């Protein structure tokens, strides 16, 4: 087992390695979510050539799920209040176990990607892990609880090595508790992402009391060793962004397309925060490139980018629609209103011309794997109930 973040040769850390493993195929073969229950399980849905989903296979993660709190009560429907809690990289799947402070890793069977072999549930040093960023030989996890921050570990085909020291983020608030209070009275880490050029890891956090700005914290990545620096290279406050939440890296760049739960979405360029600049707030104006205010939005918290068109898709947990945004300008292009009966959407993934989303309903409480065709006009394809993941379920990942 590896114990140092020096696992592979430099070629393994080319920029295209970050955010997702580049695969020659863009045809989805399986979709994964997790029950986030006690005990926690991964639900693996095979995807047919016509994008219909088969009955899922359930595999235990070896850990426990968890549920954040808001105003003193269990938070629903986004029980982890985060993005990227389940991730696929190459032929491996990773997930957080928020209730047992661990990260699970599985090997995916190439011939049948619903068959997962658990390599282990590996202990992590923080409280309430909610988000993952995975690249060649390095996995990082973001914690939202009392011991908040980011920790990283090496991984290979045998499993995950020892996680290193927790890196504090700009969101470190000594008032935070476990499970985390996500009513946004207290700043909270919500997502971590590698930049699309592979140069850095970025942590996203909300503001506090809906009166302070959201923040980004950035750590540079060393191409030659695969090590993530323990010391941050920069941090930035985001003027006018109070509930910075999650989103996607723009391929080959230092830019991120992220959501703001109060207003819509925004684009940032993190280059000035890890190219040797000082880490005061002087560069904040250079970081925030655009801010898209979405009319009628309620809780815009998840987003992905359709690489072919350059359009970002914003999901709202309280609205049965997706808002399309030109990420180069921040301009809203159109709004797609679904007719599948859902109340809203959580995690989102786009593979080729297919959008997968974690659909939610309030009465009765239920969650779904929702499938949409992005070729031409957006269209409903499937809306499949998630057995066992109807209340606490979180996370979405796709194997191609």
CATH H level: which superfamily? YVTN repeat-like/Quinoprotein amine dehydrogenase
Summed up, the domain count is 1
Beta strand %: 35-45%
- What is the CATH topology classification name? Methylamine Dehydrogenase, Chain H
Radius of gyration computed on alpha carbons = 19 Å
- Top CATH class: Mainly Beta
Structural class: mainly beta
The strand order across the widest sheet is 3-2-1-30
Percent helix among the residues? Answer: under 10%
CATH architectural designation: 7 Propeller
Shape: globular
Mean pLDDT: 91
Major sheet details: 4 strands, antiparallel
Task: List low-pLDDT spans.
Answer: 1-24, 278-282
State the end-to-end CA separation. 27 Å
**Number of H- or I-type helical stretches:** 1
- Count every beta strand, where a strand is a DSSP E run of 2 or more residues: 30
Can you describe what's shown?
This protein has 400 residues and is an all-beta fold. It has one domain (10-399): 7 Propeller (Methylamine Dehydrogenase, Chain H), CATH 2.130.10. Helix content is 1%, strand content 44%. It has 1 helix and 30 strands. Strands 3-2-1-30 form a 4-stranded antiparallel sheet, with no helix packed on it. Strands 6-7-8-9 form a 4-stranded antiparallel sheet, with no helix packed on it. A hairpin with a 5-residue loop joins strand 14 (189-194) and strand 15 (200-205). The longest helix is centred in the last third of the chain and has 4 residues, at 284-287. The radius of gyration is 19 Å and the shape is globular.
